[in-house]
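Q: Got a minute? One more chain.
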Amino acid sequence: MIRFGLIAVLLLATACGTSGPQGGGGSDGGTLHVWVLEDKLNETQQKAADEFNKTSPVKVVIDKFNPDSYPDKLRVSIGSPNAPDVFFNWGSGSIAPYVKAGELADLTPAFDADPALKSAFLPAVLDVGKIDGKYYGVPLRGMQPVILFYNKDVFGDAQPPKTWQDLLSLVDTFKAKGVTPFALGGATAWTELMWIEYLVDRYGGPDVFKRISNGEPGAWRDPAVLKSAQTVRDLVDRGAFGTNYASVDYNSHAAETLFAKGKAAMHLMGSWEFTNHMELQPDFARKGLGFAPFPAVDGGTGDPANVVGNPTNFFSVTAKSQHKDAAIQFLKTMMSDTYVQGLLDAGDVPVLGSVEPKLASTPNPEFARFQLDMVRKAPAFTLSWDQALSSAGAQTLHTTIQDLFNGKITPEQFVTNLEQVK
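A: Always. Here it is, folded:
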């Protein structure tokens, strides 16, 4: 499974699927165009539109786009006569340019007028759709936190690490047994990014990356960034990822296979790891896959309960839409029992605080409850850096992180090379 966020930053564009709305934003009279990606939730989204259209004089039309071309298609369309009324996005940095250009509707009044709407969603997730203190997105699908997975058979009586010293001890233990401590698809750069994201958060808290993503001068020079780069090099030098990680391609499931077959003890990966194993190694997914939070680090000021990853995806409303009220009413269907069940049936864990009783119907209720509890207790949920930064910045970030892991640059050079990234 390739992350939508990764796809979003690779992109060159020719739209696939629909050609997009003609006169979207209401010029066709009574039509509300909603742009989404072509993915597993399209059926659920269409059912929500069909239900809404039974009673609304403004009719929702779902326009589906290929993920590869979608971000560029959106950039060209926003602000034009062909802009959608409502569109899929990743929150945070992915919509910040549109907010600054005045192209998005401020949804804060809608949340203020309907406290049940605001309180329905997990606060740490909802805040990813907030920019400059105002809400510009409503969560539309499940959470995707990055989780420390471990192989129960390899671990035996050992426990997943709670502290950094625990983690280092496990690295030494598994190395001595001839087992690679951590699977890592190092040929795919974003798999390495997760380590930096968590370490920076644990050492310095979420405000470190917040300052970076805001483009504050000197933000990359925060001591937490250098310390995290030094910690990565220590892990590499200790053999935490083995010796061949740079040639392991995540997209061909090589890292997952090493992990499932017991050749690696742990794997730091997004929650989609479970879905992938259910497709490729279902017995391992049900019986052998363990999961735990990322551990605390010595001397860190970040809360160990903080989470990084993909909080969720959002729907935002364009400022020029002639059907803003209808759009907001449609967005409230993201809370409906029918829509929530559609998410659950697709394997997503919705970002609603009230969803817990429904998790028994998921493929692995224990894992679903772990995710919900993890995110619900998180003081902060930081969006994956390559989704929060510009496309050009994300590409530089990927290259620089691979160079760090592969020993081509020092931790100090890592910081220097990233100072151009925004």
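A: The chain has two domains: 4-141+312-354, 144-308+384-418.
Q: Perfect, thanks.
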